[in-house]
Specification:
- By secondary structure, the chain is mainly alpha-helical.
- Helices cover 73% and strands 2% of the residues.
- Strands 1-2-3 form a 3-stranded antiparallel sheet, covered by helices on one side.
- The chain is globular.
Length: 498
């Protein structure tokens, strides 16, 4: 499939094939990421529905949201150790291959008709995704001749299209099979998708940069032994803790709590450690202080946004007609709305920023982030309308309510996600330049962990009530207004970065 998208770069003999004018290796990484996202978003579409289904795990909506949120937070949390494994032990190429294999094993485990293996499957998918996600973008960068290569931005744009193509196709196929045929067949189809991605990665790896096989800072034998020892200690601690919970009969109530706490504490610890680093210059410290503002905004944004796969999906399953123009469709299809909106709107938003920049009117990063929070708050304010209607009158509402909500959230995402990736690279202290992208992903971890904590058995807050949705909408809009009011202060902390 990948080779069919290539063409000759020139008509001269011996010219190398390219992928739409980009290095041939981009086709390999494009397809690998597309299939990985296919398996990931297929899992995202099925997971909450399987958890609440009578033929699935038959859990409450609150418990399903807690499990889904913790799973999402772990995927992004594990991106940091995934990058570390590549830097110290395996190199990006080998780490991506291992990660893909672990994802396949996870989906196969989920496909087994046994509830006992379900959580082991979730853990394997999260671990494999962390190993792969942390390194495949790095390998895209290795294909180009440094940051100044004029093809670089275009290459990442093509790569981004691959992500959204996989995300768009997954709910339509994996979701349909899982909901209409058999849940476990759906999980198995996700394994097939990742297997296709791994197969073409291995076949096309000869086209990748040699730099992708390099271990950046190889661990010494002593460091390897120390890492193994530390890993075994944490494994023993985790095994002892969960064994204790199982023996005392508290496993169901407390199983998620350690992961939720880790998802909240680790991002804070990482940022505090950086802020306390005496080797950073005053300018780097100032930029890092400004970055903390963006990190908090992003965490609040993802706390609400990622409920499109849990709170909104569960609402769609029970309170939406899931019929449009006379055609019925599975609930999981709603998860295809975001990627198709992304592909349609991303060029428009990017062009709008450029148009405003040429006229000296482009909003600052702080204003863009404030807009993203306001929009995510508005999306939940819109959600209140069908939520209150079904609560008061019963029955089901039009799917166009959810289409509207997803549209507003996507515009908000485009004001935050690409901008956040860019500002992260610009504001990173030199000492932590390689780690800051992992820090950005930790904002997702923190946001999803808050959702996991709120819906945990200890608090048990039902987030699909009008009161909870109204509070979240209010918090987002107020937080957006807060960063807008402090935009000049944040701009001063950022130095020359806009």
């Amino acid at each position: 499939m990948a080779s069919s998208l290539t063409k000759d770069s020139a008509n001269t003999p011996g010219s190398e094939k390219t992928f739409f004018g980009h290095p041939r290796g981009l086709a390999t990484l494009f397809m690998t990421e597309m299939w990985e996202r296919y398996s990931f978003y297929g899992m995202k579409a099925l997971l909450p529905l399987y958890l609440i289904a009578p033929g699935g795990m038959n859990m409450s909506a609150t418990t399903a949201t807690a499990i889904y949120s913790v799973y999402m937070s772990m995927v992004y949390l594990l991106a940091m150790p995934g990058g570390w494994m590549a830097d110290r032990f395996w190199g990006p190429r080998k780490t991506v291959a291992i990660g893909a294999g672990v994802v396949i094993a996870g989906h196969i485990t989920l496909a087994l008709p046994s509830s006992a293996s379900f959580f082991a499957g979730l853990a394997l998918v999260a671990l494999g995704s962390g190993l792969l996600k942390a390194n495949i973008s790095t390998m895209v960068g290795h294909l180009y001749d440094g940051p100044e290569d004029p093809r670089r931005d275009g290459g990442f744009t093509l790569f981004y299209i691959g992500i959204n193509m996989g995300a768009f196709l997954a709910p339509l196929t994996i979701g349909t099979v899982g909901e209409n045929v058999n849940w476990h067949f759906g999980f198995a189809l996700a394994a097939v998708g990742m297997a296709l991605g791994l197969a073409q990665f291995m076949l096309g790896s000869r086209h990748l940069s040699g730099e992708s096989s390099v271990v950046a800072t190889p661990a010494t034998p002593q460091q390897k032994a120390s890492a193994l020892r530390t890993g075994l200690i944490w494994l023993i601690v985790a095994a002892a803790l969960y064994t204790f919970l199982g023996v005392t009969g508290n496993f169901a109530d407390w199983a998620l709590m350690p992961l939720t706490v880790a998802g909240l504490v680790i991002p804070i610890v990482v940022l505090v450690r950086m802020k306390r680093d005496k080797e950073l210059t005053n300018l780097e410290q100032s930029k890092l202080s400004g970055y903390v503002w963006f990190f908090i905004v992003a965490a609040v944004f993802w706390m609400i946004y990622d409920q499109n796969g849990s709170t909104l999906s569960i609402f769609a399953e029970g309170k939406t007609t899931n019929s449009l123009l006379g055609m019925d469709f599975p609930t999981s299809w709603y998860q295809s709305l975001n990627p198709i909106f992304i592909m349609a709107l991303a060029p428009v938003v990017a062009s709008a920023w450029l148009w405003l920049n040429k006229r000296g009117k482009e909003p600052s990063t702080a204003v863009k982030f404030a807009s993203s929070l306001t929009l995510i708050g508005i999306s939940f304010a819109v959600f209140l309308i069908p939520l209150i209607d079904t609560a008061n009158n019963g029955g089901k509402v039009s799917p166009m309510w959810l289409v509207s909500i997803y549209f507003i959230q996507t515009v908000g995402e485009l004001c935050l996600s690409p901008v956040g990736l860019s500002v992260t690279t610009k504001m990173a202290p030199a000492k932590y330049s390689a780690q800051m992208m992992g820090v950005w992903f930790l904002a997702v971890t923190a946001g999803d962990s808050v959702t996991g904590l709120l819906t945990s058995p200890q608090l048990g807050i039902n987030l699909d009530t009008s009161g909870a949705v109204a509070v979240e909408a209010f918090i987002a809009v107020i937080a957006g207004f807060g960063i807008w009011m402090n935009r000049k202060k944040v701009k001063e902390l950022m130095g020359s970065v806009n």
